[in-house]
Fold this protein.
Amino acid sequence: MINDRPMSETTLSSPLLEASVVNPQAAKSKARPEATVLLTSLIDAFSILVIYLLINFSSGETLDSVVGMELPSANQSSEIVIDTVIKVVESEYFIGDEAVDVSEIPKRLIQIKEQLVSEESKKGMSLIIQADKNNSFDKLNHLILAGGQAGFSEIKFAVLAN
Amino acid sequence: MARRNKELSAEVSLIAFISLLSVLICSLLLTAIWTRMGTMDIKQAMGGPGKVSEKKPDPVLWAYFGKNDTIRFKMENSRVKMPQHQASMADMETLRSVIGALVAEEKSLSTVLIKPQNKTVYEKVILLMDEFKGYGIKNLGIVPL
């Protein structure tokens, strides 16, 4: 019956029945029971999954997440434009991936800013601060001061967008 | 005559399609970003070496963090005389209503300066900034210690 249908090629016959030693039915040609898998619903499900994933696919930029760091969440956040990033991991500070001593931060930021200005880079006007939500403000205070001193007019705090 | 038995098959082979979909799903799942990051922006540049304007300065709302995450609000350069308001971060409903009342009273308010304390938790500062942004305040600044 099923062989007459247009989807007959996509149905699978039961390999267990054909390979059965106790009661081999492969030779029986009449009224052979078939375990069919309807592929239409499978394709539907796959298509829905692909569409959902494509819609959620973000082509925008993102920051490297740090293990154990919990960012604060915000409803009114802006989209990330990657610029100079300072990470605060416990008591250590990182500019990019390089660990920097607190006292050297203003000097390093001035160097970065000068380099960006000389390269006439479009980016470089903002400084992104990535820190754990439970940090006290005194850990971030000197970053804001150093950013202002180096000429970063815009300071951005990395958050989880709700 | 022998050709009559051969029928043309107009069927689409679904196996290739399923394979393609599987590969797409796998690659999309692997590259998917499940947590969306954003930024909360502040402008730290307070004016510049421009002409001295004769125009009355724009109103500025100051938000001072106090003990136990209480926040004291003080309006400057406002035409409307306002008493100082106070709210706590522990009671977000009251905080929202205070901010809403301040914004409603001074329609031209576009600048808010937040002054945290040493021990103020970073998350609370972001929360307060988020509330102000929610009321359409564009220029947010943080006053360093």
